[in-house]
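User: quick one, fold this
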Amino acid sequence: MFDKVLIANRGEIALRIQRACKELGIATVAVHSTADADAMHVRLADESVCIGPPPASESYLNIPRLLAACEITGADAIHPGYGFLSENARFAEILEEHQITFIGPTSEHIRIMGDKIEAKETAKRLGIPVVPGSDGAVTNEAQAMKIAKQLGFPVLVKAASGGGGRGMKLARTAEELDMAVKTARSEAKAAFGDDSVYLEKYLTKPRHIEVQVFGDGKGEAIHLGERDCSLQRRHQKIWEEAPSPALNSETRAKIGTTVQRAMQKLKYRGAGTVEFLYEDGEFYFIEMNTRLQVEHPVTEMITGLDLVIEQIRIASGAPLTLKQEEVTFQGHAIECRINAENPKNFRPSPGKITYWHPPGGLGVRVDSGAYQGYRIPPNYDSLIGKLIVHGKNRNECLMRLKRCLSEFVIDGIETTTPLFTELVRHPDIANGMYDIHWLEKFLQQP
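Assistant:
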């Protein structure tokens, strides 16, 4: 096991990793920008190192400064959390060159799955069903048009690198395709330094279903069930739940087994999430995230397994805690992402939290680094916390969530909690009748 782990992240995920380390008896090092000097994870860490000014490029993304922090503190491993450098293959390689353990997959697997075209080809070889689309990147407009007509409109133009909805454009007709390709290329180049794009068939009413996996890097792997992440705004998830209200036990077992066997063949190491679009009883692979997900707590709530502790154990060379037949699922869990944003137009709302009263009670969890008096900096993602609730079944879970939202008080800034109060009362949500386009349509209503 490691003696000291440096947490190369900030906010709620840094605090989440820190708690797991403490439960394992591992000392922690918090790194922070000058904007995060008063952050909770910095206050609670065994040691902290300031690694630069507020811009992430000069602090949380600055690899030499992270390496220097490891050298200064004697940290023998780095946990990247999610975002920032968590899916940077070169970062994982550099750590290995410096005899520092990267708590995550191999650089090879990060690189394979980080390129969406290669990831799709790998998924095919592993027996995972994929969305119909182009074989590799499209190189010109004429090729794009030929492929689009074969697929049938509408089609999605997607960046080969990156994620989060950037470099993704919808072409509903042939007339829209040329501009969609150009715009997607431009966005991809600006965001990821790579203007490669490819085409996929656009599914009209799919669910977004993802399967949580763990591998030991030696050929053993398990799945921990699925999460439904279909409530999205601009391809960004805001509400996640497990299990999915759209799947029956037979379908759930089938896709879980398919993904588990694929990860065994790949000899995948650590935590990962295989993401699908699901429509008319069919699953279509879209990408794999080679890291911990924001929504990992819903899986923890229904399995009782600490995913961060499992990550750390596997990175240290230990075997998987459970075999597949030992994985059990209990009840239902829902997570709401609490963002410092206006709930109507989603404009960021940084500033000082003047009052903070999170909900509590049985089956309630709030993952957040926020506190009363904390000033949210304007430099980073607006996620300030996650409300996760668990119940014996989905109805109990929804009722508990409704109660918790009425208790959650955050003053001084705007947050998205009022939106969730609306959603939890909507009949479509109560009945589980929604797809990835549902939220956008709901938000357009007067």
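User: anything notable?
Assistant: The longest strand covers residues 221-233.
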